[in-house]
Structure formats: C-alpha cells, structure tokens
C-alpha cells in the first residue's frame, strides 16, 4: 500500500434516499480513500433463496470508481436472513440458555450444514461478482466472528470425537486428566457423555471452549478458501477481529477466538477498536488493540476496519479528539483507519451508534475534523506508513488462562457468580499493560506457544494460570539465557488440562524464581511493605488487592513483604537472579500507581529505562521505523491542557514541517500531537 | 350522581366467617355509599364449567340494599379459574419469556377463543343476574386490563395481517419504513416473517406494542357490548385504568394501554391510584393520575375505583393523611373514592396489601378516619361534586414515544439494559409534571392526535420522540396562532414508524424553534450557564443531566448555554418568537428546582403567573368550578407542619362553614386542607 | 466413644498418584483418629451399571487399619453418575425452573424409582462390603440431603394425594384453609389441581415445602433401613446436616429439612459447619450450628462431619484459629471434628475449597496446627469428651415460620423480590441468637411441637409467624407456670395453614402479653424511646428497624415507645406478668447492641444473670459437664489481642495442667483459649 487507508463502512442499503454521489463527493473532500461494503447485508443481496440482487453493490462500486475510492468487500454472513431461519430454525445456535430467536446478528451455529450451504452460495456469488472490479482492493471474511456459544448436539458430538482423538480413545486418561471422579462425574462409556452445558468440571468446560475457538479458525479458513478461488493476487483477505467487550468497549483479550491462530487465515489483520472518549480518552484501548493486532501477524501493519466516529451516546469526540485518535492508531502500526460508519442509521438497533454523519446527513464538526485528518494524511502519508516496531518488552497472553480463570476466579476460586464475583484475566492483563503504557514502554504480545523469546529484554506473564510444560520450559530458558521475566500471582498453577499441578508452586519454576508458596488467601486488610530496591521506589505501605500468595523465598531477594498481623513473615514480591537473567514474582495485586513504580524499578535494573520513560506522565510516546527507514516518534497529548516537553530527538516535525533539535521545547496542545521523523 | 361515591371493594368470598351485616353497618357508620363486588372472583362464581353460584353476589346485593349502599359489579375475567387452564393450557399467554404457569392474575391471552368463550358465558350470566337489581349503579369491565405481553403464534399472525393492511401488502414499503435492511432483517415473503419476540428492530417492536395496545381496546369494547345488552340506561360502564408502576406505585403513562382510545369504550373513566405516603406523601401521584383520568374523558369527572387504605407495608397513613388523600382526589376532579379494599385478606398473595380493616376486622384508626371523611362528604357533597377545570396549560403525552424510548433509551441509545440503564419517558414526563405541580400550575393531558390546542396558553411536549407529521403541524399552527410551546430534548426525532427523520432536527420545526442541532451526547460534567431572561431566574450553573443536545440558534434567543470546555459554544435552552406565539426548547435535563425556575420564567413571560404560583412552595392549590357553578379552591398541606397563607379569595370555607375574606390568614394544619367555595 | 473423633474426609479417588501410606502416616502424626470415605463417589464405585469396583474403598480401609484410624463410610448417593442420567434423564429433578442438566451434585429427584432402584443397589453392595471391616465405626447416609426443589408431576400428584388425606377429601375445607378464592384460585375438582410451581398462594406454597421436607425424612429413613440390615450393633448411623447458606456460610435454620424430625432416623447427629474466619471469626456460627445439632438429638453429643481446614479463598485461618475453632466445636458439645477435606483437589469445581493439605500435598502451617490439636486431644480427651449441657434458656425455631416469611417477607409483605427485598426469618433468629451469645447465655433450640418447656427459665420465640394452636397453648401454660417468655414481632400471626388469624393479635396470647395491636408499618425514621426498667438499660433513642408493630398495652408495662411524630402513642416493647411468669414482646427490631441491653435487663429480672454475663464482651464462655461428671468451662478469645479475666472458678486448667483458683487472673492469648475442669 502506498497510501493510508482512510474511510468508512458504507451502506447504500440503509440510506433513506439516493445520495451516493453526494456521499462519495463528501468523502473525497474529506481525504477519504476507501469504503467497506456488503458486510452483514445478506438479506439485501439475496432477498429470497437463490434470488440475487447486487444493485447496491454495483452502485457502490460504480460510485467509488468514479470518486477514486478503493473498496473492501465484506462477505455478508455474520447476519443471517429471515428466510434461512424460517426454513431451517436449527440454524440458530443452541447455546447454554437454549435456542434463541431470530433477530440479532451472530446467532447462528457456524457449523450447521444449512448455514454453510447457503453461506457458500452467497459468498461465491458476491465474490465472483466483484473480484474483477478494479476498485476492489480486498475482501473481509465475515465479521467479528466468534463461536456464539454454539452447543448443539452435533457440536457436542463432534467435541466428544475430538476428545476421543485427544486422549487416544482412553476414557481413563480423560477421567484422570479432567478429574472427573469428583462429584461422581466419571464417564466410563463414551455414549454416556453428558450434555457439556451442565458440567461443573472446569477442565471439561475449558476444553469445550478451546475446541469451540478452533471452530472459528476452521470457519474462517473455509471462507478464505472460497474467496481465494476468485480473488486477484493484488487483493488481500482480512477479518475484523474484536476484543473482550465486558465494560462496554474493546477491553481485553477475546475469549471466544484465539487471534494468533485465527490470524493465520488472513493476509492482513483487521480489527475493530472502540473506547471511551471525551474526558476519559487515554489512548490505552487504541494502543492495546493495536499492539495485539500487530502482534498476531508478527509485527505487520494492520487495518482498523472499525472505530468510532461519533459513536455511542457518550463518545462524541471533543474538538481534536477524532484527529488524535486517528493518529494514535497509526502510532501503533495501523496502515489505515476506517470509521463505523459513514452515516447514522435511521431505524433498527444501532440508531444511536452514530456515524461520521448525523441523521441529517449534513456536514458536522466531526465530519469536518475527519477532513483535516484526511488532508494531512494525503500530504504526509509517506512519513506515516509502514511503521515497524522493535519492542524490547513482551506480554504473554493466553486464551486458556482467561477461560480457566472464569471457572476459578481470582477472588472466589469458583465460577464467576457462585459465592460472589471477581475480577478476571483481562483486568490483570490490563493492569499490567496499562502500567507499561503509562511508563511509555511499548510492548508486543506473544502466545504461550512462542518458542523463542530472546528478542525481548523483558517478558511479563500476567496470571498465566494454565500452560503446558513446554511454555514453562521456554520461560526457564529465557531467564537462563539472560531474560528478565516478570510473573504475577497465579502463574504456572495448572497444566494444559486445567489440572492444578500437585508439586511445589509455581510448578517447575521454583528454582527460577527462588521462591515457593503453598498457601494464599484474600487480603483482609493486608498492605505491602516494600523492601530492598523497592523501599525507595514505592511510597508507604500501599494496599494489597485481590489475593495474597504467601511467598517463601528460597534464594530470592524480597522486594516487599505483607504488612499484616498474621502474614508478616511472608514475601509479597520477590526477585531472583537465575542463570544470566532475573525472575520477578508479584504475589499480589496493587493499585496501578504501585505497579508502575515496581515496573519502573525493574526497568531501571534491566537497563531498559530511557527517555520515553522520563517523559511518562507528561506525554505519551509511541515509536517505530517508517517505510523510508526513518525513526518516527509520536508525542501524544491525551489531556485537555497544553503540555511542554523538550524534544527527545533531532528531527523534522512531520505535520508542520518544522525542524526540531533535541532539547527544543515542544508545546503539544490539548488533545493534540507532534510527529517527529528522523 | 348527586352524592360522592365513597366506599371499598368488598369480597364476601374472602371473609373467614359470615359478617356481612356487621360490615355493611360499619360502612354506613363511616359514611360509605358504595361497594364494588365480583371483580376477579370467577372461580367462586363458576366453580366448575357451567356450574354457577351467585350466592356471594346475592348476599352482597341484599346486604347493600338493606344498608342503602350502591353497588358496582365487576366482570370477573381478569383472573381465570384453574379449571379453564387445566382444560386449555394455551389460554395462558405465551410471552417473550415463553408460556407461564397458572397462579397469578392477568396471565391469559385476551384474544384466545377458549378464554373468550368462557369469559362471555360468565359475563352474560353475571350481568343478567344483577342488572335489574336496584342497588347496582354500574359495571366495571374486567380490571386493570393490559395485553400481558401476549405474543402467541395466533397473535403474531394477526399482527402480520395488520401489517399487510397497514402497508397495503407492500413488503418493500414495510422494509423501508422499518429499516429492515439493517443486520439482514429484510422480509421478502410474508410467510418468512420471523417471531417478533426476537427482533432487534425498534420500529417493528414498537409497532407490535402499538398493535397490542389495540387488542386491549378491542377486548374492552367486546366486553362493553356484551354488558350493554343487559345494563339499564341509568347504569354506567367503567374500567379500572392503571398506570406505569415501575418504582412500585402509580407513576406515569401506562405503556400497555392507550388510555385515550380505550376510554372511548366506557361511560365513566375509573382508575386506581397508589402512591407513597407517610413522610413521602406529596400529592403528586394523586394529581397526576387524576389529571390523566379526567383528560382521557374530555375533562369529565372520574371515579377512583381503587386507592390505598392501609395499603402496603410502608403505606399506613399518618393521622390526617387518609383524609387529605381523599380530598386530593376530589380536588383533581374525582366524583368518588373507593379503597382497595374493605378488609385485609387472610391468605394468598396480597395478605399485606391491607384494607380499611386489619386482619382482626375491628375498627382501627384508619377506619375511624375514613368515617370522618364519609361524614364530611355526606354533609358537603354538593359543594364538592361535579368539579370542572379550565386549565390553561396542557402536556402532550404519547404511548408511542414511551415505547420508542424503551428501544432507544435517552442515556444509552439502546434497549434498556444493553450497554447500561437509563431513565425513561415517564421520568421526563414526571420531571415536567412535577415541576408544574410544584408551581401550582394545573394541567390537562392531550394525546398526539389532538387537533386543536387553542384552548391552552401553554403546551409542553416532554420527549415527544416519535410523532406523525400531522402532530408536528398541529404544534406549528398552535405557535403560529399565539400559543406558547415548550418542548424538551428528543422531541420530533422520529416519524410514526420510529424512523428517525433524515433532515434537520427538530424535524419540521427548526423555523418554529429558530434553532437546529445535529450532535448530542452525555453530560460528562457539563453544567448550564443561564443567559438572557434566565440569567436572573436561575442561580449559578446547575448540572446538566441525562443528555446534551448541542443547539445552534438560528434566530432564537439563547436562555442558557453549556458550561463545559468542549461545548461552550452551543445553546442548551432557546426561545423563539414565531408567528404570534413562542417556542421554547430545552436541550438537556436539569434538577427539578431548575426546571421550576425555567418554567416560572416562561409562565411570567406568557402572562400565566397568578396567585397560585405565589403560594407555590407553601401550600398546594387545586381549583375548579363545582356543580353549583361556584369556584372551588383547595389549599392542601402535604407536610407535617402547619402552614399559614393569606386567603387568595373571598369565599366560604366549606368544611367549617367559616366566611373568609381575601387576605385573611388561613392556618392549614399538618396533613390538612382548606376548601374555599365561591 | 472413648476418644475424640478427629480427622478428615479422605478421597483416594481424587488423588493424583498413590500416596495413601504417606497420607495415613501424616494423619497419625497429627493425632488424627478417623477418616470419612466413599461419600459422593458413586461413579467410581460403580463405573457402569452393575459393574462394581471397591478398590479405592479397600485401599482406604486397609491403610486406615494399618494406621489405626477409624473409618466412617458414606453412602455415595448424593451425586449421581452420568450413566444413570444418560439412561434415565427424568432422574434429574424437575424444579421451579424446569429440568436441569447433569453435572452438579444434589440435582436428582430423591423420589424417582430409577434413582431409588440404583441407589439401593449401590448402598447394599457398599455396606455389605464394608460393614464387617473392624475399622468401620459408622455409616453416613447420603450427604447434606435436601429436597432439591423437586416438583415433578409425580411429586405433585403425590402432594395432591397428601392434601386429600390432610383435608379428608374435602376440597371446600382446603379452599377455605388456604384462601384459594382469592384471585380465582379455587379448585373444585381434584383433577383441576394446577401446577403448584405457578401458585401465588402462600398457604399452598408453604404446604408444598412442608410436604417436601417430609420427603427428606422418608428418604433418609429408607436409606437407614437398608444400612441397618448390614451394620453391626457397634456401628452408628449418621447424616451430615447442614444449614441455610444464604450469606455464603452456615447461617441459620435449614429451609429444606426439618432437622428435628429428620434426626430421628439416625443414631448420631452429624453436621457441617462453615463460617467466616480471619478477622471475621466470632465463634457464633460454630456455637449456633453446634447448639442446633445438639438440640435435635435431645442434647446428645454430635459429630462435626465437615468443617473448614484452609477452606475457601478468605478462610485460610490465622495462626491459632484452626485450634481455637476445633475447641469451639467441643465447647458446644461435639465429640469430634472432621475437616473437609484431607487434600485440596486438583480439578473440577471445588479446587479452591482447600483441604488440610494444599495442592502440593506437603505439610503446611495449617496442617501443623492440626497436629497441635490432635496431640492435645489425644492427651486430654477424657476431660473434653461427653459434654452435657443444662441450659436455662431456649429458642423456639420453626421451619414453617421460615417458609411463610419467604412468602410474606417482613419488610415488604410479599414474596421476596416482588416490591423489593427484605431480611428473612434467619436474620431475626440470628439477631436473637447472637445477642444471647454475646451475653454468654447458652441456649437450646426447641421445635414448635415441644410439649414441655418447664426445664427452661426463659424461652424466646423469634418471629414465630405461623404455629398451630397447640404451640400457643404450650407457650401460655409455660408463662402461667412461671416461665419467662420473650417473643418478637410477627409471632402468633397465622395458623398452621399460614392463614392469618382473624381475631385480635397476637392470636390467643393478648392476655398473656397484656397487649394487642392491629396496625404495623415500616419505620420511616422511627426510633425507640426506652421506658420503665429499660430507661436505664438502653442509651438514647436507638433506631427502630424492619417494621413497627403499633402496640397498645392492656395491662402490660411499657418498656419502650416509638419516638416518631405519628406513632408516639404506641408501645414498642412491653412486658406483662401473667400467672407465675412474664411475657415480653418486642414490636420492632433494633441494632444488635440494643437487643443485648434489652435481653440483659430481662435476664437480670429473671434472675438469670451470673458470672458468664459479667465476662461478656471480654471472653466467650461455654460450659457443661464432662464424662467424668466435672464442670467444664471454656474461656474462648475470638480476638487478635490478649484478654485478661479473673478466673470464675477454682479448677484445673486442662491444657497446661495448672491449678487455678477463683479470682486468679487468666491471660487468654490472641485466638487462644483456656479450658477449666472441676
């Protein structure tokens, strides 16, 4: 790509009257270069089985062509038409709460043959119809695909067959691996296998979710294969990945898809990233989502297929924020930003998930600001494109740990909701990620099956609750060979079947950490007493949160103990030199500021502290090397006040062309930024 | 009617032993004049199919006759007998959560033929049996009728047939009007119409509710027709309407019935009104319910068929409150007050929804206070009866707007509960109503299809989110010809199909309001900066609530802007002279006191400020003209302290016969009142 | 028994590798004497229908035998195997929410013939296999048995047949007793009886629960009969009773079992008691559960079959607490304490309900502390065993009142959740129990059908909402003959059919209490104004809580009135001399401290105040007579600080053998205790 992708999802289908010429003109005036079409419009494309109507597609392609806009065509399968469900009700996923009703999207069993047959027909017809159009630059497969809690009898039968393979038909091995003796849950004949939806066995439940994440890989692979039969070589395939949405925005690791494995199917990783804005805009979600999406394709640039324009009720950007957000995506490595969506829809469900245009379809301040971005990008694209990062810090993330910690929550030890609620995997992941972000430490994400970590000076494993021996071996080798490992509480607790290890904790790593423990509990008022090199870095005795592992050092340096009448003898944070590296272990959670202080001290020890860390708290720094091979530095101001910082580099200020010498004072306005090249 | 209806619902069926003679004696001693019987006692009247037993009815009629009490006979249909459901389980409504179980009342499909057949038989038998009894003065049709979320296949088929008629069999028109293209929801063959219970389309969902409100009209009309075959000309037909009950009392507009259209069926509007009491007695619910019930029958007097005696756990009235409440109903235009119910029931479900008598069936302070009321009314009835009001202010209310705002809530833009909760239509309606009540401004309610508003000096439209063009035209004409229109945020947003208008907002009224906007968001800390004529009326910079519409004046005077770093350039409240009238627009919500100040300023401008407004905050004023053509003024003290006010009129104090001259100091005791005639 | 039972539940089945020799060695080293096996392991014992595998049982028996440990064998029936449900899905209980899914335990219909047939087969085989083993000292029948909300058609048919018997086939009598006329719920043909799960009739609903509690008695009796065919005379039968678990621990009376009647089936009452610990350890749950379990077998010693070792996340005991807890059980009359469970389980559901050993199966501080207990008990068992109590105070408890108050909650008058939530029966029971505990007053519990209360100087009836006339007569006689009765609000409200009495309240006891009332409400800010002998005992005007009964004395002394503008004339607490005794009535609830003051004053009046009450607030006193006929006094310190008290007796300090003279200062350390004998 030689220009930044900038545009919107465009639905000619949803517009109340014909205004496509006006719309494409407004787009080009705003510097837009691309639209995404057809995604989720199956019933318009095929109003009755086998009756095809590509008129909206053709209108969009023609108008785009005339306006010089590129087009990404989405397969329409993530929302099934009424006629399909009317004829085949069993296409609706049967979930843990039973069979749903037709209406929403993402409600089908993605393995059901009737769905697959009809989906294949419309995909073939649409891709065949559009692939040769010169404006079409790529295809999106489905949208925000997940497994939708499908648990039909057919899916369960196939899961049991998968288990037969996994355990080589040995039920005894399965009973032992999953601990099914407990509460009389043993299965001693395959045909007795109970409905998994009722299980209380966390190992079995987690295995079912892992299996179902595999269904997503298979489904996307199947779509990719079909589309590739038609697509030109210069057209890319992508998927719109999305994240755990629990607080109402793109928050953390996606529970229902393994992004690392699903991403193998596509040429380009696409993503949707939604986040709080206005006074709550911090840049964290944009950076988190971007770092993740870049990481799942080995550092390649990615495409933000959806992000908010005016968005939901509280997301109307303040002046400057839309532009700041757009640059923030590029600063994480995106090669394009596309809004969902061009126009606000006048009916149905997402009427108040607003597009770039309001319901009146006239220009408005948000659209105008998009034009500022578009024109800047047209001018400065070559400086901004093809950003590559060489981060020294990685965070290991695990779908399996996430799922396991829903069965055994951190604060209760039970399934969430039984005996109370608890924070989850993503809360700890974000606790770690956000602290590093606040320190201007950029990170990659790595999966548990990574084989070589040597490119990283520091690796953090937040709550890596469950992992195979091989992952633990990788971590051991990493430290031995000079890496700095930082693990939190509840790391290396259970094997890949979510069976808790029955030897000393943390399993297989007690010598690496120079520490062990076999008791843990909730805080009950405990605080941290910093010690050793943390004594200066951390103020006072901050609160210990979530849980306390009662660590007993065996060679490790104690960085903090518990300030508590009963647990004062135990360590809370330890650090150990092992081989050529170090291994730090956090036995409890803290308020964010304390973790920042702790990580800051560890970064200094590991010689990773540099000028971005000195700027932390004043301006957000994101860096990389652009397509011209020059160092690109973003200084982003996520605040309503102007910030003044000394320039960390001697460079050209991309957006105003000014020459900046290291040490010059740079003023970054409210919700504004500076990009330095060279 | 030449005397005030005063009495209770009486259930001889539920009493633990025969004491009907004692009861009717106690009633007449307390000045009661009427009882209501038979409502909800189907299984007693017809213990087995076709086996009739009117003994309790006959006992009640005989005892009433002996005691000189009038009787209202209720058809018993709102609670179905076990034998009906045992034989025809499908009589139970199939709702959005499936088919229920027998037990509660109001659980049937009011359209089901088996229900209708058996209901008709018992109605005919009961009315035939009682109509000629001289004590029977009227009939109540069913009770608190609603559509009970009925969504059986038969109801849905009939809804689809209704849509075929509405759209003249044109599915394309329906798809466009409802925006069904979105998320692939198009329907291109009528036989593909999906189960409406699953829909995510707010237009379709709202249409289904509107259709089902029509079922209530049809059902009540059907009962009315049957009863009228038997009723004497001097007997009235009524229905016990009730209100939105969301906080646990009669709170706002009823979502499941269109009272304006349903009221056409009956001769007399009946109503139940329940409300907080003790330290939380304000008179607002009594006034609100009364104003609504009077309005749905064009200002005619109405009958409070149910209100609390001792009521629920926290509703035992303080000394004086039962009497104050009783007069409050008359002050809104009621011609009678009936308690639910005479005696507290000893079993089942509403054992602690207590009657006038406690479970011991002996006199108690509440009963005694009822006697005070009864005797006063016997003496002063002619002063109090036939109250007519000629209010200068009206509030336009809309079931359609209420429903639409459940699909698109004010604070989230989504269905309530998806991405958070929100205040609803009735919260805004009550915000407006209560502020006017606090200002001693009495109001009528008008429906969206009102044709002429010229009798009103001021019309308020709280969140009139959806309305047909004709309603907007009526409002335009109203202002043009000199009316003072006050509209809140989210008025004139969508058409009658809940499709958001695609031109400038507020649709069709931008010239009337001299203002437009196309962006809005949540407050995020915004406050109001009063300006112009509001600068003096409103103190400080009060909080802006719920949402901010970013108003851009086009000729309007700005009465307030937003005090907010990003939105300071926009107006929050505007006022515009248009034709001979004015149009004020409130772009945000405020705390109640601020709205009172704003409305106060507008009332002064419109020359509507008079002495009741001067008394506001000290004593509640309710007025009208009584049957003798004299001005009747209630001064009601909803507080635990005595209040002294100068008499606003020269008149007779009805209850003590004293002559009062304008300006005389009147002391109104705690939870007490003064009624002035002439 | 000549030694204290001390041990754990042991599951060889769940262990990840063979370590039974190590385990039993660790047990004996810790002074353990007993294990419980086989409970809930049906699928291991019978992996396929009729295929038996007792290898784990044999391993455990052999190892126990070698180590000199006693064994309790549990029938495995409380968790059904997958194969049973696969063949007979209807074995799963059909509850108010429908049929569940296989997975959890306690999900079957305990009356289902397929369950009974297979349960009988495995019980017979297991007991036959183990009964003659010399290490087996007893059998546990099932586990924590309840009726699991079973409401299948068969159970409902049998319930209706039960009603036919109860009402002598007279439907009219049933309709009247239950008040089914209300809301048209009459049943006039037995075959019309509706699904009870939908009922809104509290009388019918309560009768169904009472009937289902009877199913538990029948089921346990059936198991007992089978086991007794095999058990030796020296082997006992027990059941593991448990309590209402609503806040997440053993909190109050069990709603689903009548412990008094179910206990008749067994030789020894067993119980599980779980409770907060760490900073929230108070001893109250241990004492409450112990007093209850002792009471249901007429004061006999009982066995704590389950209590926490490391327990749930927040239950890891502080140093000293495990020991203090163990002694606390003995102090209530237990003859043994068994932890659930030996080792922490590595998979499934209760992975974090931790045993004495952590997942690493190594010694840890909790295990070590258990060894301290075990060795002390081995040494001092003869002083501690066979404790008998002769308490002077009793609390009357009622399953029927508990159930009724779920239908008619104290604060709302409705089913919990309809129009708000409310505290329940057990909250009031614990309010009373805890106040007495805080006063060091030990109590027995008595059921409503107790015939003679003369052994007690004081009897308290917390919210005895429903009771037959006979119970009220027992209470009357008790007072008449010199007893001191203390009743709370909502006592003697309804008959045994939960029909509210229709005469003056409290029914049948107005002369006993010298008081009546017929109105009550919620507090709305009311406070208590102490009077008479309470004027000095209670400080200030404490808050009145939950509800106010407006008491009108008829001869009673007023101990408190309401401090409230409307209710000041009514009494809140009254006391009346009747016959040779007194009757005190509390018309409202208070904060715990106030109830303690009130009860303190009543104890002084009744001459029940002694030295334990003088020590109250400093140290917890529990007493009895041990097997050697000597007075045993426990001074327990549930706090983190050392407490010094004068010795109340001259005795031997059991644990250190010191001789103590009355008045000597005893220092009781944090979470420590002193036991005095003689």
UniProtKB/TrEMBL annotation, chains A, B, C:
Gene3D superfamilies, sorted: 3.40.50.880, Glycosidases
Annotated Glycoside hydrolase family 42 N-terminal domain residues: 10-377
GO MF terms, alphabetically ordered: beta-galactosidase activity
Residue intervals of the Beta-galactosidase trimerisation domain: 423-608
Stored SUPFAM superfamilies: (Trans)glycosidases, Class I glutamine amidotransferase-like
Domain Beta-galactosidase C-terminal intervals: 620-677
EC number(s) on file: 3.2.1.23
UniProt keyword list: Glycosidase, Hydrolase, Metal-binding, Zinc
First-tier enzyme category under EC: hydrolase
Family label: Belongs to the glycosyl hydrolase 42 family.
Protein name (Swiss-Prot/TrEMBL): beta-galactosidase
Species this chain originates from: Oerskovia enterophila
Gene field: bgaB_3
């Amino acid at each position: 790509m030689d220009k930044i992708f900038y545009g919107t999802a465009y639905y000619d289908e949803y517009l109340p009257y014909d205004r496509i010429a006006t719309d494409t003109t407004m787009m080009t005036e705003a510097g837009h270069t691309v639209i995404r079409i057809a995604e989720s419009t199956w019933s318009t494309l095929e109003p009755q089985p086998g009756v095809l109507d590509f008129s909206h597609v053709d209108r969009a392609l023609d108008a785009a062509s005339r306006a010089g806009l590129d087009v990404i065509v989405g397969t329409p399968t993530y929302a099934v038409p009424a006629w399909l469900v009317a004829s085949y009700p069993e296409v609706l996923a049967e979930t843990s709460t039973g069979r749903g009703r037709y209406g929403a999207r993402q409600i089908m069993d993605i393995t059901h043959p009737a769905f697959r047959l009809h989906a294949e027909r419309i995909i073939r017809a649409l891709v065949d119809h559009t692939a040769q159009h010169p404006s079409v630059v790529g295809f999106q497969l489905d949208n925000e695909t997940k497994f939708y809690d499908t648990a039909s009898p057919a899916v369960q039968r196939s899961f049991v067959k998968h288990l037969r393979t996994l355990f080589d038909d040995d039920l005894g091995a399965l009973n032992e691996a999953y601990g099914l003796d407990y509460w009389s849950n043993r299965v001693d004949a395959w045909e007795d296998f109970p409905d998994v939806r009722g299980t209380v066995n966390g190992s079995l439940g987690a295995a079912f979710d892992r299996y179902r994440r595999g269904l997503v890989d298979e489904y996307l692979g199947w779509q990719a294969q079909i589309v590739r039969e038609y697509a030109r070589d210069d057209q890319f395939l992508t998927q719109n990945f999305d994240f755990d949405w629990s607080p109402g925005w793109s928050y953390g690791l996606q529970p229902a898809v393994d992004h690392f494995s699903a991403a193998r199917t596509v040429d380009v990783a696409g993503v949707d990233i939604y986040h709080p804005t206005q006074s709550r805009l911090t840049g964290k979600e944009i950076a988190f989502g971007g770092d993740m999406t870049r990481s799942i394709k080995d550092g390649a640039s990615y495409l933000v297929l959806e992000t908010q324009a005016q968005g939901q009720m509280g997301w109307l950007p303040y002046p400057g924020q839309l532009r700041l957000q757009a640059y923030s995506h590029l600063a994480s490595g995106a090669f394009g930003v596309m809004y969902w969506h061009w126009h606000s829809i006048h009916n149905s469900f997402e009427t108040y998930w607003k597009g770039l245009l309001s319901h009146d379809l006239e220009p408005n301040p948000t659209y105008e600001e998009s034009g500022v971005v578009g024109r800047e990008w047209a001018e400065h694209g070559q400086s901004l494109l093809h950003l590559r990062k060489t981060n020294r810090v990685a965070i290991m993330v695990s779908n399996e740990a996430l799922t396991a910690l829903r069965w055994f929550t951190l604060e209760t030890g039970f399934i969430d909701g039984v005996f109370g609620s608890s924070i989850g995997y993503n809360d700890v992941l974000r606790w770690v990620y956000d602290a590093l972000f606040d320190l201007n430490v950029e990170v990659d994400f790595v999966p548990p099956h990574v084989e070589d970590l040597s490119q990283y000076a520091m690796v953090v494993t937040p709550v890596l609750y469950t992992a195979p021996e091989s992952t633990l071996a990788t971590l051991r080798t990493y430290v031995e060979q000079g890496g700095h490992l930082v693990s939190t509480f509840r790391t290396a607790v259970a094997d890949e079947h979510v069976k808790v290890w029955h030897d000393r904790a943390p399993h297989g790593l007690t010598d690496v950490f120079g520490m062990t423990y076999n008791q843990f509990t909730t805080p009950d008022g405990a605080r941290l007493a910093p010690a050793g090199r943390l004594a200066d870095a951390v103020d006072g005795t901050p609160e210990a949160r979530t849980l306390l592992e009662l660590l007993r050092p065996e060679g490790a340096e104690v960085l903090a103990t518990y300030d508590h009448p009963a647990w004062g003898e135990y360590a809370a944070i330890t650090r150990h030199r092992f081989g050529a590296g170090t291994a730090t272990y956090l036995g409890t959670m803290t308020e964010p500021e304390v973790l920042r202080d702790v990580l800051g001290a560890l970064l200094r020890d590991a010689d990773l502290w540099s000028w971005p860390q000195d700027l932390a708290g004043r301006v957000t720094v994101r860096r990389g090397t652009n397509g011209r091979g020059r160092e690109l530095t973003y200084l982003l101001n996520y605040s309503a006040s102007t910030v003044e910082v000394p320039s960390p580099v001697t460079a050209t200020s991309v957006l105003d062309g000014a020459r900046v010498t290291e040490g010059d004072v740079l003023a970054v306005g409210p919700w504004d930024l500076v990009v330095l090249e060279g």
